Amino acid sequence: MGTPSSSESPLSTSVPPNRLAEIQAEFSREWSRIASEAQRGALGVPDDRRFAAQSWLANPVQLLAAHLYLLSARAMAQMVDAARMPEAARRRLQFSAMQWVDAVSPANFLATNPDALRALIDSQGQTLRRGIANLFGDLRKGRLSQTDETQFRLGENVAVTPGAVVFENKLFQLIQYAPLTREVARKPVVIVPPCINKYYILDLQPANSFVRYVVERGFTVMVVSWRNPLPSDTDRIDTATWGDYLQEGVLRALDVAASITNQDQVDAVGFCVGGTLLTSALALAKARGRDPVGALTLLATLLDFSDTGVLDVFVDESHARLRDYQLGRGGMMTARELATTFSFLRPNELVWNYVVGNYLKGEEPPAFDLLFWNADGTNLPGPFFCWYFRNTYLENRLKTPGGVQVDGQAIDLGSLNLPVYIFGSREDHIVPWRSAFASMNVLRGTMRFVLGASGHIAGVVNPPGRKKRHYWTHPGTYTRTNVPADADAWLSRADRHEGSWWPDWIRWQAAQGNGRVPARSRLGNARYKPIEKAPGRYVRVRAV
Fold this sequence. Notes:
About 40% of the residues lie in helices and about 15% in strands. By secondary structure, it is α/β, with parallel strands linked by helices.
């Protein structure tokens, strides 16, 4: 087996000659080593879970192909990293190269995957039959199956915390949960989840429900359940704007919660885009002379969009103009397109892993409540999406005082002077933790930052009972005047704690001067009476 040709590609011409020579020399050395070990029968299984099955070790030809594939992928990544080009162009090229390299893995094709071929032979062809059936089933659904969705039913084994819908309008339903303690904190906790997903990521099953955990610790909890707009809707929800979501969504929910509990203020939690909406709504209220929230929690939330991680590859003026043309006056940003985008941020985990299992091996994906939720996406009104995309991801206007206006009213996130608990996840690819940390440079008041392990969802949904993962804290609180300039320096001095961050948040939330009152047995009040049992109608609407 000879050494590969060193003929130049367009990419190689933009790599500094010295670095290109180093990459080529390393590639040749590794190629020779792999070929030599293959000839001696000493080639081991690569350190990559795609090739971990013993069937790869038992098939020398495909084992060699796996090693050479990984070698080529590494060399391509090194060339992209070394290329002389603007950083924004490099990130796009890195993303494109990743998509291509991950797609052509020998594990993704029946003829070059010895594990799938062994299963085909052992099953006398049944894996192929089941795989084809799975493929056609997914084609009918219009999406890749990541879990056995038949095992989950809303209101029966997910989203089961007892409660009732106490308010609804065309944008959302407000769910109030029944108390589980004799006394509750005086102020309720209102949770604003992202409107690009269903709220029940925070109320999956009793063992991993953030909602239930908070209720069990003596808080009145209310959650915004955003409506999933459909193309068939006739009330023109497809024209809803960012301002509509702030005023008729977040602020209306806060007002209803305050009325039901007879409080001047509530405490509030925002998750992901929900946190961005919540903070923007509070700034709008502040500009109008109101302070509806006493303490604020932001979970994996972006306020400063300077670094949006891998999502940055989709952000440019031409994309914004295209969306403005397509959706700026109405229409839907579909759940299917959003889900596809997020899946291909981690294609090996969220795409090709299931292609191999579902289609090549004919397997049924296991039942997993988080992936059931992940498949239950929502559409977004076009004007809302276009405003959000341009003013945050593209132009990063929210962090600038007066940088955006809502119905002619300039807002300033820095005007918010209240206690804030900010949580980031260390491996979050959607909200990089350093960007979550940067929120402390935008807000005022006393702030506590907590960093959790794992990613965007698993970092947040980490119940104490499972005794998994860990988190970092630093003694004391910050204000905008003493926030560390370097997030990594903060981490180097932070204390690591085993387990879930949830108890830390409970202690912080309980310390916000809440006081205790007897729990009310009836949900709602005379003005806002229960409409239906939780989880309500809106969450049951699936995108088409």
